[in-house]
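Q: I'm teaching a short session on how sequence maps to structure, and I want students to see two examples side by side rather than one. Could you give me a first protein with its sequence written out and its structure tokens following it? Keep the formatting plain so it prints cleanly on a handout.
A: Of course. Example one:
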Amino acid sequence: MEIERKYQVKALPENLSQYKSKTIEQGYLCHNPTIRIRKSNEDYILTYKSKFGLEPVDENGPSVNNEVELPLTEEAYLNLRNKTDGNMVYKTRYLIPLWDGLVAELDVFEGILTGLIIVEVEFPDLKSANIFQPPAWFGKDLSSDKRFTNYHLSKLSDLEELC
């Protein structure tokens, strides 16, 4: 299960190069359920996300999904990449340690989404997500704003469509 919160970013942390990072490209084969393919550095992953069987969460609460990730070969990834809907999403993800084992996943988008920066935090349980106090550099909670799902972002032709 994936339990996460997503935020705007008020200010970038200093010296991002000190943190581990991943170069990510991802595309979507289906929505509801969401079927995504992702290249993360040299790893190729097929992800299935669904809300099937889950209790609804508070509209101001975290995003909660059933999530299954499976490895792909490069060949399978490239074959599926040709079948994606919308645009590929390109971003660099910085992994910034927080506290209690939590990690801020800072996504700096590229391509047609250049200028968009979002940070996500995944939680081990709903209680942790509900009591989370974000650091000062986090902005508005976007967890329930569907415009900021990567699936929705893949449908945009430019960043101005977010407004």
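Q: Perfect. Now a second example for contrast.
A: Example two:
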Amino acid sequence: MIKKIFAVALLCVAMMISGCSESAEDDKPINTAQASPVAKSVPAFKTTTITGETVTNEIFSAKKITIVNIWGTFCPPCIGEMPELGDMARNLPKDAQLIGLVCDTSDGSQQIKKALQITKEAGADFVNVIPDENLLRFMEGVEAVPTTIFINSKGEVVGKAIIGADVDGYKDELKRLLAQ
């Protein structure tokens, strides 16, 4: 348990230092279109959403492409893009979906409550997942949030990761991937 808490704390500190140390006004992408900072495929997992529903890696099989937005409740750019993400999720093509992966919720009900408040106020009613140990290991290469990756129906990471708040960039990459 202590090892898990340490891993989550280390991940959050690294993300705060590198990704969200910039001011809330500076929500431009840090570096778009770079190689993925995560593993090549999503490991098997069974966890819950911030609203308490059970979710597994089978969630990816429902759509051709899943946009996974890795974000934290401590991150102003992440929070700032939530209304746009909510709108995007409501208007996605039928073969795509958007899922949030809330990096700082695995060990605390306070962060879960904060994530619920953020998503509710923003109208971002898409699925937001609390990472289990397998998802925490999957995210080990993520150095900044938001980081957005794209997953195919087989659970494989495809396309380029987008680091920083860039909803237009997410839409462009999704369009490119769906056209393949």
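Q: What should students look for in example two?
A: Point them to this: The chain has one domain: 2-179. Also worth mentioning: The chain has a mean pLDDT of 85.
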